[in-house]
Amino acid sequence: MGISMKTSLIIHSTWAIIAVIAFVVGSKKFSAEPSPDSSEAGDRPGGRYSERSQANASSGARNVRSATRSNRFASDTASRNSGKVNLTENGIKSLGRLIQTSNDPIERRIAFSKLLEGLTAENAMLMREQITHMSSNSSEWREFHYAWGGLAGEEAVMFGKDSKKLDMAACLGGWAGADPRAALAWYQSQSDESRKRNDLKWGVVYGLSNNDPMLATEFVFNRSANGDEDADKMINLVAASLLRAGSASDAARWSENLPEGKLRDTAVSRVARDFAVEDPAKAVAWLTSLPESQGQTKGMSAVFSSWANRDSEAAASRINQMADSPMRDSAVRGYSGRVVYRDPIAAINLANTISNPKSRDESLVRYGRIYLQRDREAATRWLANSNLTPELQKRINSSHKRR
User: Fold this and answer.
1) What's the pTM value of the predicted model, to 2 decimals?
2) Closest Cα to residue 256, out of 68, 59, 51?
3) Contact yes or no for 268/300 (Cβ under 8 A)
4) Cα 52 from chain centroid?
C-alpha cells in the first residue's frame, strides 16, 4: 500500500465507528484468492466464486480501491508533513485524566484524539489503561483497539485473548485493515472453535472491507459456503465500504457481477438504496438492466421509497411508464409505502394497480390500516365504498380495533 503503519491507523480510525454495529450484531447471535490450503476455501461447489465471476466483480471494485489508495496516500503525505505526535508518560496520563473526569464531551473527544495520534506499539498498554472505564461498545474503545491492531498486529490481538471486553475483535479488525493477508492467515490458522467466535469473524470482514473489498468478498462467500448464517449481513458490510470509498455506480458493477444467490441479492438491494440517493433515475435504469431476482425487486422498492420522499411527482411519473411486472409491483410498494403517511388515498389508488393479487391485497390491508389510524372518519367512508371483499375489510378493521 505504500502507507506507514502510523498513518494507516489514523485513517482507519475515522471509519471505525461503523464497526460498532457490526461487532454488536455479530456478538449476538475481495484481488486474490486466499492460500489454496485455507481451511475456509476447500474444494467444494460454491466454495469460491469462479475466476470469471471474480474478474467481473473486480471491475467495479478496482476503481473504488484505486480511489481509496490515492486518498490514503494523500492523507499519509499530509500527516508526515504535519509532524509526529510524541507523548510522554505524563502527557498520556494527563490526557487520560481529562478523558476520565471531564464533563465536557468535546474536551474528552479532543483529549482522546490526541491520545490516538500519539499511539505507538510501545505506549499502547499505558494508553489502554486510560480508557479501561469505557464500554467495549463505545466508539472510542473500538477506535483505539482498531488503531492498536493496525500498529502491532498479532501482539495487539493476542493481548485481548483473556479480556472480558471485545479487544480482540477490534484489534483484529485494525490488523486486517492494515495488513489484510497477514490478519486473514492468522485467523484461518486458528482452531475451529476460535474461528466460530462471532466477534473475530466480524473483525476480519470489517478490516478486509476497508483495505481490500475483493478479498473481503471472497471471505464472505467462503463463510457462506461453510454455512455461516451471518454471511448475508457481512456482504452488507463490504457493500457499505465500497459505497463509502467510491461511487454507487462502481459498487453497482461489483454487486451485479457476484454469483447468483442470496448474497448477490442482498448486495444489489443494499447498493440500490445508496444509488437512489445519488441518482434515482439511473438507479432504476441499472436495476431494470439486471436479470429478475429478489435483489432486483427489493432494490426497486428501496429506490422508489427514497425517490418518493425526494420527488414524489417524478417517481410517480416513472412508475406510470412501467409495464405490469414484478418490478413495477415492487416499485409501487416502495413508493406507496412512503407516501401513504401523507396521502393515504394516493397510496391506496396506486396499490390497486399491483398486478400480483396477493401482493395487492397485502398492500391494501396495510395502507387501509394506516389510513384508519390517521383519519378514522375519512378511512371508514373510503372502506365502505372501496369494493374490497368482506374478508379484506375485516382484516383492516380488526387490526384497527385491537389498537
Assistant:
1) 0.73
2) 59
3) no
4) 26
